[in-house]
Amino acid sequence: AAMEITARGVVQGVGFRPFVHRLASRCGLAGWVENTPGSVVIHIEGDVAALSRFRALFVPETPPAARVTRLSFRKAAPAGVLGFTIRSSRSDGIALSTIPPDIATCPGCLRELADPADRRHRYPFTNCTNCGPRFTIVTSLPYDRERTSMAAFPMCAACRKEYADPLDRRFHAEPNACPACGPRLSVRGGDGAPVKCDDPIGAAAAAILGGSIVAVRGLGGFQLAVDATNDAAVRTLRKRKRREEKPFAVMFRDVDSVRAAARIEAADEAILLSPRAPVLLVAARARSPLAPSVSAGLPTAGVFLPYTPLHRMLLDRVDRPLVVTSGNATDEPIAIGNDEAMSRLRGIADLFLLHDREVVQRSDDSVVRRVGRGIYPIRRARGFVPAPVILPRSFPDVVGLGGELKSTFCFVKGDAAYLSQHIGDLEQAPVRDFYEEAYRFFRRFLDARPRAACHDLHPAYFTTAFADRAGADRLFALQHHKAHIFSALAETGFAGKAVGVAFDGTGYGEDGAIWGGEFFAVDGMDVRRAGRLAYFPLPGGDAAVREPWRTALSLLRETLGPAEAGAAARELFPDVPPESIRLLLQALEKKINVAPTSSAGRLFDAVSAICGLCVRSSYEGQAPMRLEGAAASKAAGTYPFTLSEEGGQLTVDWSDLVRGTVADARGRLPAGTISRRFHDTLAAATVAAASRLAESAGARHVVLSGGVFQNATLLSRVLSGLRKRKLTPLIHRQVPANDGGISLGQAYFAAAQVAGG
Ligand code: ZN
Ligand code: ZN
Ligand code: FE
Question: Using CA of residue 508, residue 512, residue 518, residue 524, what is the dihedral sign?
Fold first, then answer.
């Protein structure tokens, strides 16, 4: 008997064909395996028992770095071949779709790295078909060594032999290298002057242990490394990087050392040790070896493990956790070139640990949370990109251009949606340049001919202006929060009736108001606004974002009236000059520079200020993060809330909620109690509103999206509340709930528009 198996997804450049060869040989089967564009096709023949054994072992033994998104087994006609062969690739049509993401060092390579008898003992660039750089070294396509930055390193005879042997772990490992032929490390001083040194990693480790900041050329660009147990050193890094309080990610040598600093469970370990090796946000321990300035007042920690041999060796040498953060000044893209880094990071780094393998594609570290057993992405870059999100069906070529903050773009090609790596906030020219550069790369190597491009409704976004240059035949504008809902629909493939909830910072609304606490009636690809948080006047400008007390004052005025609001504000915000309070009350009275908003994110800002947790904010998201961080673990009751109808929209009235928090804050209740009550109340109101809308629409599903749902406290309560009401929540698992995911929603929307005529 014979069988044909097709595996789609990330199946090339990850050791898939050698794995199939080994498994077929073990089962005593004849046949062949070959790469085709976007998939691996396997033909096996032999007796029925052997075929079913192969089939049973196939999924459990798939290489860890592979991500099979579609798998089909079909009966085939025996071809009468002898033995099993790896057929050479059909290279026609190979596109970006076949490049795998970068993969963390595999156990086999780690063993060799530690083995004094191995020829790659302590070689910081070792890799194999199961691991190593991929996307970040690609200069053009198809993916082979000649078109990566490894082209500069001709393989030695020993490496070439491995590369050519179908049974070797390095068969067609394009970045294959060894100390004889591969990339090398070097060291430069903070001024860029070469430092003579036989042991670059030792020199970097010694500098770090001495409290210095070392710039390390990593996988997707430069990183700044500093001793995470040295508070003075971490504070110096903050000052030089102009990053006041935003938490730093910390790299630990191994899972055991993570446990000393954070509370992690088995499911967290699995995420940390996965081939994508993301930064995982977890609960920090109160007594921890980490310096206080690492997380700067938040009870969470971003933790990760070494994912290249270089990181592994550095962590072994310092034998303590390191802050490892992207090599840039705040608001700039990560530096990738040696010269670029030495000029841009001058004055930040005291020492440069360099190497001569060029980083071609900029890629920050990815960040995730764990929700249930799976990941909940926060920032999607290294290890994820360019693996696509698979859509429920095929579409014409289209592109979604993303938002303004945490931007990404997304090309749809067939049934695959390719998101770019996290690019960043598009307010500064260098980040815009990065966006355009990445856009050109993706467009060219996906061979995308977008029939349509979709941008945000906001007229002032960079991506809205870019739409004219996107190279598409038609343009669509999609409201920001609808794009959030579409992104969740795209990745879940859900096509029925549902309620959509988008809780977010701010987005340009269809009625000219600033949206951000929205409920939608979803029916297939039809998404209509069905409800919202009640509007309140949002003081405009950057000042209101940096100073949450301003938003709070507006809410105080709405709930207590102008006179009482002033008194309450002076009491709650003793550090704010009374004159500033008076001026803002005046502006609110005359409606100068204020716009109505339904933003859930701004409500968090305001309550965080009312509790005294974050009256002024030093980075985006600090106020809500502090509020969540403070929430007491014990339930403490809730505030009242009301749902009402207003012009056909279900409206969630927060005035009793705000009144309650203000009374508690003025009554000197602990911030943790107020925060817990606030979270529980907002969750209850969200569940009540969603279930009322679900009932009237005959829906059983609730789609949750928007950056506010990165708040694990809110999310977990909304999830359990929905389940109690027999509603099925749909949440993000592949792209961020924040603005990093909206390009997918825009692309999905445009794809459906074009496909529908
Ligand atoms: Zn490996
Ligand atoms: Zn070699
Ligand atoms: Fe958003």
Answer: negative
**Rounded CA gap, 340 and 167, in Å?**
41
How big is the chain, counted in residues?
Answer: 757
Structure confidence by residue, pLDDT tens digits, 645-683: 988 899 999 999 999 999 999 999 999 999 999 999 999
Burial tier of 293 (Cβ tally within 10 Å: 0-12, 13-18, 19+): buried
To 5 degrees, how large is the angle CA 653–CA 658–CA 660?
115
Pairing relationship of beta strands 514-523 and 497-508 according to DSSP bridges: antiparallel
Distance 464 CA to ligand 3 centre (A): 15
User: Are 258 and 275 within 8 A, CB to CB?
Assistant: no
Q: Which residues neighbour 226 within 8 Å (Cβ) at sequence distance 6 or greater?
A: 208, 211, 212, 213, 214, 233, 234, 236, 237, 322, 323
pTM of the model: 0.95
742 contact partners, CB below 8 Å, separation of at least 6: 400, 402, 403, 456, 480, 483, 484, 487
Neighbours of 386 (CB within 10 A): 25
**Beta bridge mates, 379:** 367
CA of 159 to the centre of ligand 2 (A): 4
Q: How many CB atoms lie within 10 A of CB 96?
A: 24
Ligand 1 centroid distance, CA of 155 (Å): 17
Residue 173 CA: which ligand is closest?
1
